[in-house]
């Protein structure tokens, strides 16, 4: 089951699981863009480019192909998810 984040302004606001079937292209391969379009259609007022897949490490050659499994409050850099760093008070 694929997991997607909703990242308006590149901040993870929600993590949601969808059915793999909504992401299958005509060749039966998962296509992230189809999942993004599905979620944008499901939630009016959102855009497909605000959704990004996040992965559990199960069966992946790299434990976390996008930096980490994203959680609410994490940041999307455009290629991976990172934890926010606290701002130190002077």
What report would you give on this structure?
- It is a single chain.
- With 90 residues, the chain is α+β, with helices and mostly antiparallel strands.
- It is 12% helix and 18% strand.
- It has one domain.
- It has one helix at 32-42; strands at residues 3-6, 14-17, 51-54, 75-76, 81-82.
- Strands 2-1-3 form a three-stranded antiparallel sheet, covered by helices on one side. Strands 4-5 form a two-stranded antiparallel ribbon.
- The longest helix has 11 residues, at 32-42.
Largest sheet: 3 strands, antiparallel
Helix content estimate: 10-25%
Number of strands: 5
What is the mean pLDDT? 90
Overall geometry comes to globular
Q: Order of helices and strands, N to C?
A: EEHEEE
Strand line-up of the largest beta sheet: 2-1-3
Main traits of this protein?
90 residues, 1 helix
Could you give a quick summary of the protein structure above?
The chain has one domain (3-82). 12% of the residues lie in helices and 18% in strands. It has one helix at residues 32-42; strands at residues 3-6, 14-17, 51-54, 75-76, 81-82.
């Amino acid at each position: 089951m694929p997991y997607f984040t909703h990242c308006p302004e590149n901040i993870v606001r929600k993590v949601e699981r969808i059915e793999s079937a909504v992401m299958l292209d005509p060749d039966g391969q998962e296509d992230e863009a189809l999942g993004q379009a599905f979620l944008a259609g499901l939630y009016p007022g959102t855009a497909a480019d605000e959704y990004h897949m996040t992965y559990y490490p199960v069966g992946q050659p790299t434990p976390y192909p996008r930096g980490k499994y994203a959680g609410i409050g994490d940041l999307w850099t455009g290629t991976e998810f990172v934890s926010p760093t606290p701002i130190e008070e002077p």
